[in-house]
Design goal:
The protein is an alpha+beta fold. The protein has helices at residues 17-21, 29-42, 45-50, 63-71, and strands at 73-85, 92-103, 106-119, 122-130. Strands 1-2-3-4 form a 4-stranded antiparallel beta sheet. The longest helix has 14 residues, at 29-42.
């Protein structure tokens, strides 16, 4: 049996597949988040689109770009970082997650804080905020008058730093 892409460790047929096929509804915001990730991995674009809040001034989902992201990516794993509310008896919930994938040979991580709403007993993705990536320098900063790290013997400003910044 195939393991579910959402990372639960359970068989796909007993985890997210019943939600994606419409046989069951996800009972929590986290369950919907996991099913949506699995839908990306399984290229079930209709499920992704159908589990988004519609109306209320919301912009329509771009089906083509959603399908391209789903199909042209290799989905590597989902990590749930935090869940606030979103239980079966709640009407709103937040799930912070990281979805790792590769696309065009480059590995990336989509880090988002997603908001979910329950409408008429069904959970929907409302919107989310991308969590910015902070880049941390691992070595000392190279000054413009320092020797160029490429080993040319020239000052950085006259070598590799000429077109930087």
């Amino acid at each position: 049996m195939k393991t579910c892409p959402c990372g639960s460790g359970r068989p796909y047929a007993e985890c997210c597949e019943p939600y994606i096929t419409g046989a069951q509804q996800p009972p929590t915001a986290e369950a919907l988040m996991r099913a949506r990730y699995s839908a990306y991995a399984e290229h079930a674009v209709d499920y992704i689109i159908n589990t988004c809040i519609k109306g209320e001034g919301k912009q329509e989902i771009d089906r083509k770009s959603t399908q391209d992201w789903s199909e042209k990516s290799e989905w590597l794993g989902l990590k749930i970082l935090s869940v606030t509310k979103g239980a079966a008896d709640d009407t709103e919930g937040t799930v912070e997650f990281e979805a790792a994938y590769t696309r065009n040979g480059l590995k990336d991580t989509h880090h988002e804080t997603a908001r979910f709403k329950k409408v008429d007993g069904q959970w929907f993705y409302d919107d989310g905020e991308i969590v910015p990536v902070t880049i941390v320098r691992t070595g000392p900063k190279i000054g413009r008058n320092d020797p160029c790290p490429c080993g040319s013997g020239k000052k950085y400003k006259h070598c590799c730093g000429r077109n930087a910044g």
